[in-house]
Write a structure and sequence with these properties.
Length: about 270
């Protein structure tokens, strides 16, 4: 798809991967709107890239419900929705703060689903658009100390896979991004988490399986994938067999549905 002049909404655009994505889309000629809770940080990012800001707490269901309408009223139709905002949980299930479970479920899973639901009819009507999901390697398997986070990312992976099937044959693309470690505040928090999480990381690090990438490198790959309509961005590449194994039931379903007509705007009457 043509990125020059496209309107891109990046949730969680105040720092980390979201800020890098905002810069990379802007470098490709897009108008970028960054959304999150921290107005000052958003202003800094938007100032650097000549973009716009929208302050929004994705834990607040009313805010999430109104976000697409508000942004489109202020800036025009959104062509690319980048569901990037996310938070981690880094404690075992028996000790994690129960409130954190609700926050992570809402911000990482409920918000992207609602935002996608809200943005999609307009994209289908205009026959132009892309939805990007920043998921995680943690969505392909369970990891001790990260159960709720893994659950939300696995949910996002299957949501994206279902959506992809619904959009087959339409001009709207989806891209699912499944990174391992990326050098941001979130990874710092994982590295300084409880001993069980650290021991798990040490094991994977010793095996050379989780090299860290930068937000900028990842963002570059995501923007290229949006432009070409590529359905997956995976990091690290050395874990490709793992990604393929977790993807295989989805591919099988896709194969089994060959020739079945799916209407993305179908309704139960
Ligand atoms: P980060 O530096 O902590 O940034 C998280 C972003 O999400 C911030 O912009 C934050 O903005 C926003 N956010 C958090 N809670 C929010 C809320 N309630 N409402 C609105 N925005 C909220 O983390 P990151 O590493 O860049 O993470 C970005 C995405 O990449 C996440 O989905 C994460 O799961 C995924 N990911 C990260 C890694 C990694 O190793 N870093 C690996 C795989 C996947 P405010 O604080 O301003 O609201």
């Amino acid at each position: 798809m043509e990125l020059k002049g496209a309107r891109v909404l990046v949730t969680g655009g105040s720092r980390g991967i979201g800020a890098a994505l905002a810069s990379a889309y802007a470098d490709a000629g897009a108008l970028v709107i960054v959304a999150s809770r921290s107005k000052e940080d958003l202003c800094q990012v938007a100032g650097r890239i000549g973009g716009a800001i929208h302050v929004a707490d994705l834990f607040d269901s009313e805010v999430v419900d109104g976000l697409i309408g508000d942004v489109e009223a202020a800036h025009g139709p959104i062509d690319i929705l980048v569901n990037n905002a996310g938070i981690e949980t880094v404690d075992p299930v028996a000790t994690v703060d129960p409130d954190a479970l609700r926050v992570v479920a809402r911000v990482n899973l409920e918000a992207p689903m609602v935002l996608t639901r809200r943005v999609l009819p307009g994209m289908l009507e205009r026959r132009f658009g892309a939805v990007v999901f920043i998921s995680s390697l943690a969505g392909t398997a369970g990891f001790p100390g990260m159960g709720p986070y893994c659950a939300t990312k696995a949910g996002l992976n299957n949501f994206a896979a279902s959506l992809r099937l619904e959009l087959k044959g339409s001009p709207i693309s989806t891209t699912l991004v499944t990174p391992g470690p990326v050098d941001t505040r979130m990874w710092d928090s994982v590295e300084s988490a409880c001993q069980s999480v650290q021991r798990t990381n040490n094991r994977f690090q010793k095996l050379g399986l989780i090299p860290k990438t930068t937000p900028e490198l990842l963002a570059h790959r995501v923007v290229a994938a949006t432009a070409s309509g590529r359905r997956h961005v995976r990091h690290p590449r050395r874990l490709t067999p793992n990604f393929w194994m977790s993807e295989s039931p989805r591919r099988l379903t896709e194969l089994l549905l060959t020739g079945v007509r799916i209407d993305p705007l179908d309704r139960t009457i």
